[in-house]
């Protein structure tokens, strides 16, 4: 059984105030052509369909057309809501359109019923688990100890009571420990939303969303498809792709990727102003790409952003790297906050401002407050 795995479409997203809708429509058309070539039995969209819980009408229309095109192809489609989505809006009319082969995850209710497809090797059961926090799971399992995201996912997956003698596919949207992040993801500082990959033991394929770089977590059966487009300059080096997972008989899985070519790439350029505006240096390049330009000139160029946009109309971000900015600390490695917990960061800030560390009582209060805010 061939499965096309997508995630994190973020339809309606704006990057540095530039609308990406035109680029998203282009890449969805490219994905449809790949689906026609691959001929899958199932297509997965593992969350973050939209960039906001209340998406713009144009984004809804674009996804509506994408689902219509998939339905015309008689392919089974599995869509779960991500942390950027409204689970109620994603679930709207799901029971009505189920018969067309479009399966939308309901709002989490403590139970996840599988949808079963079959091939020559027998059944394949698809479980759709939308993005959940510990508080979402805890309300249905009050007798379970749920204090972390790992606890929540373990309880939610165990409640599915999967028959591990048949092939099972889990579609979900979470931050699994070990995933390589980029700047455009909405994950917690310090990794408090980490999920241990061990909760997925015995599942034949885990189709993940949430992390924007395509990657396996330890082994090919636990896989992030990544975004179809680059959504931050930290992703400039990514090769975006469509993941194709082929399930053979039980225990036999093959995963391949098919690269995606955007209408406009997202790139970084660096150099002095005179070089960047010299025709010989930019002629023959894609000057309409989305760009982050770093100028190395020692003196500021008057009205430089508008002058550069004559040649590079989609210049998104501009900064300088010279003696002045290096002395002022504007260019350089950012502080490593991703490895620190929110409580660590609060404690560091308090000590910088007050010249003394948090007391034991203050640590307890801050920890309880952080947990409460994160749960909400």
Number of domains: 3
Distance from N terminus to C terminus (CA atoms, Å) equals: 40 Å
Query: Kindly state the mean pLDDT as a whole number?
Result: 92
Structural class: alpha/beta
Name given to the CATH homologous superfamily of the largest domain: Metallo-dependent phosphatases
List keywords for this structure.
alpha/beta, 19 strands, Purple Acid Phosphatase, chain A, domain 2, globular, 376 residues, 3 domains, six-stranded mixed sheet
Description:
By secondary structure, this protein is an alpha/beta fold. It folds into three domains: about 1-260, Metallo-dependent phosphatases (Purple Acid Phosphatase, chain A, domain 2), CATH 3.60.21; about 265-325; about 340-375. It is about 30% helix and about 25% strand. The chain is built from twelve helices and 19 strands. α1 (about 20-40) packs parallel to α2 and α11 crosses α12. The chain starts with a strand and ends with a helix.
Summarize the structure.
The chain is of the alpha/beta class and 376 residues long. 28% of the residues lie in helices and 24% in strands. It has 3 domains: 2-259, 4-Layer Sandwich (Purple Acid Phosphatase, chain A, domain 2); 266-327; 342-375.
Q: How is this fold's topology laid out?
A:
Elements: E1 2-6, E2 14-15, E3 18-19, H1 21-38, E4 42-46, H2 57-72, E5 76-80, H3 87-91, H4 94-97, E6 102-104, E7 115-119, E8 122-129, H5 134-138, H6 149-159, E9 167-173, E10 175-176, E11 194-195, E12 205-209, E13 215-217, E14 219-224, E15 241-247, E16 253-259, E17 266-271, H7 273-276, H8 279-282, E18 290-295, H9 304-309, E19 315-320, H10 323-327, H11 342-354, H12 360-375
Parallel strand pairs: 1-4, 4-5, 5-6, 8-9, 9-12, 10-11, 12-14, 17-18, 18-19
Antiparallel strand pairs: 1-15, 2-3, 7-8, 13-14, 15-16
Helix pairs in contact: 1-2, 11-12
